[in-house]
């Protein structure tokens, strides 16, 4: 045996960064990281093992080290169950209008072992929300929930867009605050990212009613768009100015090969449009739901039809698309293989959401095609309002995320008891 084959591959050490002063940049660069509230900095908290293990699983998935590879030293003893897991939607379930929903804190404590069975339960976050990197969301959620969280636990609506960075070179990125979405897109590996601000800076007549602020003018990049071909349009986050963003998207859709200032004769030569999700409404701080990215999509399709007479085909990622649930499955499978040496996802995943059209629909449809069980739980703290009939019917409806967690844990306990009783009845009696 050559000496090289005796070398055991070493994992990069897990870094623990203070949630108060962590920045997106230092979370992103430097290997696997957990973001930690100051009070847990001295020693790992109950949430550490889950957060760290998902961070490693995610790094392995992204470096194409699939779950088919052999488990890397599973811990000898762990209180974390491999049988079931939770996946949480964020807006309307854990957070509303930037504020934590109070029951979410207790729900997380239960998952981290403070339940009557003393077990710990793995969990991930699957949100359609966007406009921030997974790292930034992680810092924010760690502060809001006051617990250890890793970027590896996050799946955002725009997460799958990173896979398109190889396919499209020059892209228009729409939505979000300031330069944030450009940063997200560049972080995903897109080589040449254009924003609506860049286009207005080049020709301010593009949008008659929008003038760039001095900040926007400073950040926007000057170039000659008569010479640029925009190959694809990505709506990463909610538009902050529908009128001007739609004008620019429409100009590109009607152009010849994404060159601004040109018009296609057939209106069939424009670049493709991708949305990071399709939520028509979402749950923000207002008592009633607010319109979201799905509404922009509907509006754009209608406008294209009105102006050109043609149908526009657009693509949306996020929930309820199966790709989002498939990615979550790969992550859970990688985690289970790493931590328990079992190369399949947990038997049941409890998905807790507030939007029937994305959370419940996606979970139910994925349950039909998945090898394991996906169990949908609808909460009453967000989009869904009591007294209405959801178009997509959840397996359970509860008031809050805390009740959702208790529901899942109790269901698992009852199922385990049932199984034990069945196997006791079928075990042949031992004759003396
Ligand atoms: O824009 C955000 C929103 O549409 C939904 O986020 O966390 O409820 O999937 P979430
Ligand atoms: Mg939601």
UniProtKB/TrEMBL annotation:
SUPFAM superfamilies: HAD-like. InterPro entries: CDP-alcohol_PTase-I, HAD-like_sf, HAD-SF_hydro_IIA, HAD-SF_hydro_IIA_CECR5, HAD_sf. The keyword Signal does not apply. Transmembrane segments: none annotated. Keywords: Hydrolase. One of its GO terms (biological process) is glycerophospholipid biosynthetic process. GO terms for molecular function: hydrolase activity. GO terms for cellular component: mitochondrion. This is HAD superfamily hydrolase-like protein. It comes from Tothia fuscella.
């Amino acid at each position: 045996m050559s000496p090289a084959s005796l070398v055991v591959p070493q994992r990069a050490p897990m870094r623990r960064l203070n949630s108060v002063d962590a920045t997106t940049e230092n979370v992103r660069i430097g290997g696997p990281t957990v973001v930690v509230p100051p009070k847990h900095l001295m020693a790992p908290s109950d949430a550490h093992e889950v957060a760290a293990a998902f961070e490693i699983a995610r790094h392995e998935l992204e470096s194409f080290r699939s779950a088919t590879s052999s488990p890397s030293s599973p811990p000898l003893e762990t209180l974390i169950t491999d049988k079931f897991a939770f996946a949480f939607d964020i807006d309307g379930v854990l957070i509303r209008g930037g504020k934590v929903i109070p029951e979410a804190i207790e729900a997380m404590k239960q998952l981290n072992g403070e339940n009557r069975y003393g077990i710990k339960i793995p969990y991930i976050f699957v949100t359609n929300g966007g406009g921030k990197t997974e790292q930034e969301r992680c810092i924010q959620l760690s502060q809001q929930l006051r617990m250890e969280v890793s970027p590896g636990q996050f799946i955002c609506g725009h997460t799958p867009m990173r896979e398109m960075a190889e396919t499209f070179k020059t892209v228009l990125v729409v939505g979000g605050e300031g330069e944030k979405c450009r940063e997200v897109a560049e972080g995903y590996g897109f080589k040449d990212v254009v924003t609506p601000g860049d286009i207005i800076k080049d020709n301010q007549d593009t949008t008659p009613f929008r003038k760039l602020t001095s900040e926007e003018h400073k950040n926007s990049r000057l170039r000659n768009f008569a010479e640029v071909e925009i190959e694809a349009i990505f709506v990463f986050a909610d538009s902050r100015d529908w009128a001007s963003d739609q004008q620019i998207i429409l100009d590109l859709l009607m152009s010849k090969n994404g060159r601004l200032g040109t018009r296609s004769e057939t209106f069939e030569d424009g670049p493709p449009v991708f949305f990071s999700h399709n939520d028509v409404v979402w749950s923000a701080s207002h008592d009633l739901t607010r319109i979201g990215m799905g509404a922009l999509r509907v509006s754009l399709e209608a406008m294209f039809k009105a102006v050109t007479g043609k149908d526009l085909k657009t693509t949306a990622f996020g929930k309820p698309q199966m790709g989002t649930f498939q990615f979550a499955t790969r992550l859970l499978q990688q985690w289970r293989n790493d931590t328990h040496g079992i190369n399949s996802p947990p038997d049941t995943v409890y998905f807790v959401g507030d939007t029937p059209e994305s959370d419940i629909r996606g979970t139910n449809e994925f349950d039909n095609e998945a090898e394991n069980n996906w169990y949908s739980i609808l909460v009453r703290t967000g989009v869904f309002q009591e007294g209405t009939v959801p178009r997509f019917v959840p397996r359970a409806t509860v008031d809050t995320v805390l009740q959702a967690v208790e529901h899942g844990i109790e269901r698992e306990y009852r199922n385990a008891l049932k199984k034990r009783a069945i196997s006791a009845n079928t075990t042949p009696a031992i004759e003396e």
